[in-house]
Amino acid sequence: MTDQTHHCTANDGQNESPDNGSMADTSFDYDVVIVGGGPAGLSAGVFTARADFRTLVVEHNRSLLRKSAHLENYLGFPAGVRPTTFLEIAQDHATNAGCVYVSGEVVDIKHAHSEDHSGDAPETGAVDSGFIVSTADQQFETRYVIVASWSDCSFLDTLGVERGTEDGGHVPIIEVDADGRTSVDGVYAAGRITDQHHQAIVNAGHGAHVAIALIEEVNPAFWNDWVAIEGYYDSYDKEVPVGVEEISHEERERRIRDSRATMRRYFGEHSVNEPEDAMR
């Protein structure tokens, strides 16, 4: 992937997320910046983007998963899947959900809108002030941050996020609560960097969990990421919950056809004949 920004174009607006009301805070470039484009980061991005958070994923293309020869314990792939194919699917899923994707390495994160520009939290509070996420050649202002990279987290030095060491090892980890909150308000962490087990499916699940915790903190109303058949809630004399999209039977069939065609593109005959990836 080249060092450029990629925007969602895959679904041409035909499979949009439920309209839960954008955060619409134009003082920031993004509502959330996710550091890391492995299973945890991309999973988090799918959920935040579908909740109408303007989401940027910054990826240095060194996901731990790339070291695997073949991914064989991820639910939904009975014969396993090539790790690079899995990551391609996951990246496309995130961009299709609405994420913006940047290739680069984060070198620093500091508080934004601080009068002395020291990076310290201003008196008004970290979440109100937001953060500046810096790569070698770009800066992005965001209201929230989710760290899902591995294993260097020295870019958090300026913020003073509490860190520890992984169980039985020497690699630094980020200390978090049960929902991925760090010691700095507005900064979350997910996946291997929080001492989760290294398996991809565990990290993807944790990324989703942390994203939902952030969504529910911003929008305390019970939030669902769910698609239902039109009229389902009427049949129970209930209002459609926040975050639920109702679609017609015809639209459901269209989406099923589209999903089948999409998966054939990843696993068609030409994919079987592609050369093996070099181990990194």
Q: Topology, please?
A:
Blueprint lengths: L4 E2 L23 E6 L3 H12 L4 E5 L23 H15 L2 E4 L2 E6 L14 H4 L1 E5 L3 E9 L15 E3 L6 E3 L12 E3 L10 H19 L7 E4 L14 E4 L1 H19 L1 H4 L8
Parallel strand pairs: 2-3, 2-7, 3-4, 7-10, 11-12
Antiparallel strand pairs: 1-4, 5-6, 6-7, 8-9
Overview of this protein structure:
The strands form three sheets. Strands 1, 2, 3, 4, 5, 6, 7 and 10 form an eight-stranded mixed sheet that branches. The protein starts with a strand and ends in an 8-residue tail after the last helix. It contains six helices and twelve strands. The protein has helices at 39-50, 83-97, 126-129, 200-218, 249-267, 269-272, and strands spanning 5-6, 30-35, 55-59, 100-103, 106-111, 131-135, 139-147, 163-165, 172-174, 187-189, 226-229, 244-247. Strand 2, helix 1 (39-50) and strand 3 form a beta-alpha-beta unit. Helix 1 (39-50) runs parallel beside helix 2 (83-97) and helix 1 (39-50) packs parallel to helix 4. Residues 1-21 and 121-126 have low confidence and may be disordered. It is 26% helix and 19% strand. 36% of the residues are buried. The protein has 280 residues and is α/β, with parallel strands linked by helices. The protein has two domains: 5-226, FAD/NAD(P)-binding domain (3-Layer(bba) Sandwich), CATH 3.50.50; 228-272. The longest helix has 19 residues, at 200-218. The radius of gyration is 19 Å and the shape is globular.
